[in-house]
Amino acid sequence: MYGQLRSYQYENKLKVDGETTIGRIDSIVRFPKSSTVFISYIILNKKYNSFESALDKKISAKDIGKFYEFRYLLDSPEIVRGNYSKEITDTTAILKAGFSREEMEYIK
Questions:
Q1: Which residues contact 77 (CB under 8 A, 6 or more apart)?
Q2: What is the helix (H) or strand (E) element at residue 31, kind and residue range?
Q3: Which region, left, alpha or beta, applies to residue 48 given φ > 0 means left and ψ of -120 to 50 means alpha?
Q4: pTM score
Q5: In the Cβ-directed half-sphere of 35, how many Cα atoms lie within 13 Å?
């Protein structure tokens, strides 16, 4: 119960106070009853690797390497939520977010 309450608090805080950045899907791991998406993103020149449940997300293995909009909290940058309906393909925006050209290899 405590975990659910804490998760609910973070979800609300992300909606109200969350900052926006660009993140990349690094991998997706699927299990019979759960699914996890692993992502990387850069905040204030520091690279973070995090994850979130992918069960209710409309993403698949073809999305690995793609960039999306993510929300995070300044005081807890390791907690992120992706907006998988907002794929980012603008190379200038991705470079400004701190990614290298090599990390954008899937973009044509």
A1: 43, 46, 48
A2: none
A3: beta
A4: 0.85
A5: 12
Find the length of the chain.
108
Whole-angstrom distance, CA of residue 65 vs CA of residue 18 = 24
The SS3 of residue 74 is: coil
- The contacts of residue 95 (CB under 8 Å, 6+ apart) are 101, 104
pLDDT in tens, 1-53: 444 435 656 778 888 888 999 999 999 998 888 899 999 999 999 999 999 88
Cα separation of 69 and 89, whole Å? 11
CA dihedral 91, 96, 100, 106 (to 10 degrees): -30
- Work out whether the CA dihedral 55, 59, 62, 67 comes out positive or negative: negative
How distant is the alpha carbon of residue 105 from its chain centre?
Answer: 18
